Amino acid sequence: MSEENHLREEIVRYGRLLYDRRLAHGSAGNLSVRLADGSVLVTPTNSSLGFLDPARISKVSSRGELLAGDPPSKEAFFHLAVYDQRPTAGAVVHLHSTYSVAVSCLCLEHTDDVLPPLTAYHVMRVGKLPLLKYYRPGDRALAEAVRGAARDHKAMMLANHGPIVSGKTLDEAVCAYEELEETAKLFFILGDRKTSPLTFEAVAEINTVFGN
Question: Quick one: which of 117, 124, 184 has its CA closest to 157?
Fold first, then answer.
């Protein structure tokens, strides 16, 4: 099986996994992977992640030109913006999962990192999570905002929308997204209770040891 066909199957497999875990619903959310030649496979517009057809997954150039498959998600442009700024990124996950989207709707005083470092695994897999201002779905102006954040962050939050998470592989990006959603869930469960997030020194040690 070619690399491309293997990755098409992987997108279908992980799409179903995320749908079954109720991290994706309806036709919301999109997944992408970057091929060795720089082109990108991305889920088609108006498709449900739980019912993807590998043959119909969109293939676009690094400039967004459709090369094969169905028309791509209208949000494919911000996947390309992430790849443009992160040479090591091989996959991007964007979903509208409940707890993460709830975080994106809060009035937050500080937007450079919108979830506290409650666990080492959030620090390792997600890192700092900046909040970008609201853009309507499909607004191409979002690409520049994503491009700016992606230079220094593997994950970011879109206001009133949800997270974008990148990884070296689709497996890594999915695991990081799940970690983000679980941290968002913890954030709401803890609520106003006094918490003990990881210290600056503990976060720095994790980043040094694990290369974040």
Answer: 184
- 83 a catalytic residue: no
Q: Dihedral sign, CA of 30, 36, 83, 88? A: positive
Predicted pLDDT at 211: 75
CATH architecture of 3-210: 3-Layer(aba) Sandwich (3.40)
pLDDT single digits (tens) 169-204: 999 999 999 999 999 999 999 999 999 998 889 989
In the chain, where the domains are located: 3-210
For residues 20 and 198, what is the distance between their CA atoms, to the nearest angstrom?
A: 32
Give the β-pairing of 155-158 and 131-132: parallel
Q: Which one of the listed residues 4, 75, 172, 178 is annotated catalytic?
A: 75
Judge residue 13's burial from the number of C-beta atoms within 10 Å of its C-beta, 0-12 exposed, 13-18 middle, 19 or more buried. middle
Residue 121 among the catalytic residues: yes
